Amino acid sequence: MRAMGFRPPLPVFRGRLHDARTATVIGRALGAAMLVCFVTGVVSHYLQQPPSWAVGVLPTRPVWGYRLSQGLHVASGIAAVPLLLAKLWTVYPRLFGWPPVRSVAHALERLSIAVLVASALLELFTGLLDTEQWYPWPFPFRQVHFALAWVAVGSLLLHIAVKAPVIAASWWRPRSGPEPVDVDGPDRRSFVAAVGAAVGAVTLTTVGQSLGPLGGLDLLAPRQPDHGPQGLPVNRTAAAAGITADLVSDWRLRVVGPRPYELTLSELRSLPQRSAVLPIACVEGWSKNGQWTGVRIRDLLDRAGAPPNARVRVVSLERGGNYGVSELGASYARDPLTLLALSLGGQPLSYDHGFPARIIAPNRPGVLQTKWVTRLEVMS
Amino acid sequence: MKSRLVIGALGLAAMGIGLSILLTDPYVRDPLDVVWWLAGAVLLHDGVLVPVVLVAGAALRVPRWMRGPLRGGLIAAGCVAAVALPAVLRPGPVANPSVLPLDYGRGLLIATGAVAAATAVAAVRSGVRSRREAAGSGDGPDLGDTVAVQDQDVDAALGGDGARGVGYVNRPAGDHGCAAEVHHGHTIHGVPQPGGGVPVTELADEGGDGGGPAEGVGGFGADTGEVDAEIGGKDLRGER
After folding, report:
1. Boundary (domain end) residue, out of A195, A217, A239
2. What is the interface pTM, i.e. ipTM, of the complex?
3. Chain A residue closest to B11 (CA)?
4. Which residues does chain B have within 8 Å of residue A160's beta carbon, measured at their own beta carbons?
5. B104 part of contact set with chain A, CB < 8 Å
6. Would I find Transmembrane among this entry's keywords (chain B) (predicted)?
7. Residue A180 — very low, low, confident or very high, per pLDDT cuts 50/70/90?
């Protein structure tokens, strides 16, 4: 390369740990975190927007499935912050490789790395800010976060394919023996332990928002499971949704189906009541169990003469927002734990939790647990 | 080879899916917005955050026994700050009192303090072990070796060949060529000493009494925690 004569005054790196073994050790942990984050993110996406063939068969067990999956999504994303920063620090000198491009294949590889680095950084950044409901960018969060997830994981797979020989050669600790001893071993272990400690620190200070036993340590979590009316956080308040005492004073539940009917709140309360302990699990990562009491959706549908495989459109009184209408597929609608809940923890629902009545179904994103329900429509 | 091709093809397909969502989703009005933010993320990371970390690592010179614990403390404190700062800096009213209900500046301080305390404990243990080994081998002056925290070449910081050799100890070969005064902070007293015989700093002496290292390291850890918090802050503020 010296034959080319010109070399700009690029930085020279003589520090240690910018080697393939360090990149592999950090990289495989980062890859695992990204994979967990991606899979749980896709699960969440399709639970919220199922393709039409899947609507009726979404699983309702385990009841805490979405709670676990979305808790993992946010926790693995947060854990990926130290891992990504450490990985990029390790390989940073390669940014200044000279000549910058050796061949078409090399140019494409560098381009794919740029895509990987950019999408991974922006993905973690947007995800972290979403948990705080902060949207300083000009594009919609959900669609772009979903699209960049595919870009990031795709470019990660491409990167793994390109680097496979290097990864394989660096997968195991270099053995002492005839080969030269790995002089960086102790330093690398110290560095990896430091990154592990950083992962532990960011996890311990946030994961309590979905993992009850660590609730006391979540100094930095955007939500506290106990903060909120009736000891449960809220995303959209009654005020924000335009719900007033006036609006619900003559509230009736309308059930539209083969045998349509209406019920007042006291009539609903006189129907057989069921209780279920089910989590509210938010897409933003926080979750908490509640003891819900109300009428089974199944019973309400039977009374309307709905066929057993019916889907149900749930219509809320709320104004504005994207979640005033939701749909219960047959698996949710028939599940004995799916309730039109009237109370939480033995107390009538507060306005912010959906008074007079809300949906609560097992294994479901919180944003679909429609509040202030006014109408159930049986769909053919 | 075949599995590499399959993985690579899967990767390209996934990238294609992501790209098609970006280009066709009706809610994404201008995909270029996303491109600018992607480019901004890389520029701020590669152009600001990493250089700052490298310079900080090269500038912080400590005895070898302190290096691992201090580096670990800085990494952990910096990452905690990176995760906490959006909550600290988020402007404007929140949707309701259950969103961001805590005092996150306070949380960050407590977490940083806990990291500093853990760093101090680790440094004391490391110092004691190092001293014991030194006493065992009779190689006393080893305790006084100084190394950059990230062991990062200063050349990288200064961006040119011209700076080569300034204040840098290549660790495996790290003899007693440098003296450092961590106490007085930012000055790099790392220029190779012609005599090569000035290695044992005050810090090495301090290792002698049990309380010394803890105090020194604790104060240092707290200090640098703040520095690192600022690094994270620059990154995140910049990305807004």
Report:
1. A217
2. 0.91
3. A154
4. 7, 11
5. yes
6. yes
7. low
